[in-house]
User: Which sequence fits this backbone?
C-alpha cells in the first residue's frame, strides 16, 4: 500500500500536501478532519509530510539535465515573455535582536502574451545566482530554450538584469513601465506642486511610450542642472541616472508594436498568489527549508504537475 513509517498512504499524503499548499498547517489539518470524518494526523505531522515532499520536489529539480537544447527553427520560434521580481516574507525571530528577520523570495513567471498557453512559475528562497540556475533548469525541463523568449520585463533591480545577462543575453530587456512612471511622478511632485507637476510628468511618459527617447532625456538633463535636490530619493540627478542606466530597456514603442507587455504585472500577480497568500499571513515565521518546501508544492500545483507527481510517487512507493 506504500505506507511508510508514518502509516500514511500515498493518497492520504497527497491530500495533506494539497491542503497544506493552500492553508496554514493547523487549518489544513482541521479541514481534512472535518471533510474525512476522522483526524488523519496532527498539524505537526501535516507540516512534516508537506516539507518532506517539498524537499523531494527540490531534489527532482536538481536532477534535471542541463544539456543544451536541439530544436528546429520552427520549434524555436519565440512565443514567451519572462518577468522576474522579488517579494519579502517573514523569517524566524533573531534571538539576539528580538525581532523578525525578513527574507526575499525571488519569483519568475514565463507567460504567453497571446494568453493561449498557461503560465509557468518558478519561486525560490535563493540568492541571485542560485535562482538563476533554478530558473534555467525549470525552463529546460519544460523545453523552453532561450530562443523561445521574446522579452524579459522587470523593475530596475540590478540582480535581475545580471541574471538575464548571464543566462539569456540575446533576449531583449524592458524596464517595467509602471516602475518608470513612479520614478518620474515622484520627482515631479517633489519639485513642483499642482498644475506644473501634472503637466510635466505625463509629457515625459508620452515620450517614453512613443519612443521619443532623446526628447525624453533632454528635460531630465535640464532638470538635473537647474533644480536643487529637494530630497535624496527624488533628486533630479538620481532620476536621470536611473534612466541612463536603463536606456537600452526603454523600448516601449517596439514592445507595443509587437503586442508585447510593457509592464511586469504578470509576475507581481504571481508574487501575490504564489507567495504572499500562503507565506505572508499573520503570525507566520518561516525557515528557509520550510518556505522552499511550500513554494515547491505551490509551483508544482500551479504549473499543472501536481497529479503527475503523485502518480509517480504512488508507483515508486
Assistant:
Amino acid at each position: 500500500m506504500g505506507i511508510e513509517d508514518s502509516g500514511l498512504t500515498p493518497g492520504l499524503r497527497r491530500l495533506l500536501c494539497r491542503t497544506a499548499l493552500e492553508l496554514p498547517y493547523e487549518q489544513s489539518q482541521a479541514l481534512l478532519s472535518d471533510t474525512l470524518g476522522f483526524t488523519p494526523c496532527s498539524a505537526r505531522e501535516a507540516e512534516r509530510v508537506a516539507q518532506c515532499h517539498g524537499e523531494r520536489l527540490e531534489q527532482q529539480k536538481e536532477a534535471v539535465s542541463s544539456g543544451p537544447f536541439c530544436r528546429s527553427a520552427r520549434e524555436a520560434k519565440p512565443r514567451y515573455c519572462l518577468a522576474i521580481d522579488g517579494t519579502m516574507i517573514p523569517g524566524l525571530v533573531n534571538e539576539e535582536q528580538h525581532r523578525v528577520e525578513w527574507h526575499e523570495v525571488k519569483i519568475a513567471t514565463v507567460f504567453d502574451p497571446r494568453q493561449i498557453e498557461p503560465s509557468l512559475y518558478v519561486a525560490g528562497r535563493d540568492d541571485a545566482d542560485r535562482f538563476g540556475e533554478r530558473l534555467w533548469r525549470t525552463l529546460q525541463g519544460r523545453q523552453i530554450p532561450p530562443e523561445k523568449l521574446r522579452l524579459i520585463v522587470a523593475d530596475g533591480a540590478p540582480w535581475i538584469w545580471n541574471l538575464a545577462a548571464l543566462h539569456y543575453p540575446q533576449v531583449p530587456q524592458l524596464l517595467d513601465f509602471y516602475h518608470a512612471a513612479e520614478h518620474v511622478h515622484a520627482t515631479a511632485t517633489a519639485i513642483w506642486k499642482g498644475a506644473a507637476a501634472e503637466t510635466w510628468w505625463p509629457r515625459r511618459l508620452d515620450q517614453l511610450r512613443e519612443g521619443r527617447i532623446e526628447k525624453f532625456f533632454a528635460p531630465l538633463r535640464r532638470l538635473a542642472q537647474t533644480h536643487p535636490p529637494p530630497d535624496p530619493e527624488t533628486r533630479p540627478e538620481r532620476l536621470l541616472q536611473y534612466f541612463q542606466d536603463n536606456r537600452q530597456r526603454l523600448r516601449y514603442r517596439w514592445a507595443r508594436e509587437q503586442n508585447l507587455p510593457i509592464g511586469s504585472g504578470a509576475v507581481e500577480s504571481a508574487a501575490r498568489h504564489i507567495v504572499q497568500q500562503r507565506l505572508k499571513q499573520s503570525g507566520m515565521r518561516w525557515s528557509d527549508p520550510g518556505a522552499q518546501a511550500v513554494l515547491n508544492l505551490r509551483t508544482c500545483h500551479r504549473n499543472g504537475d501536481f497529479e503527475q507527481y503523485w502518480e509517480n510517487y504512488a508507483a515508486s512507493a
Remarks:
- Strands lie at 80-94, 99-111, 120-124, 149-154, 173-175.
- Residues 43-62 form the longest helix (20 residues).
- Residues 30 and 274 are 22 Å apart (CA to CA).
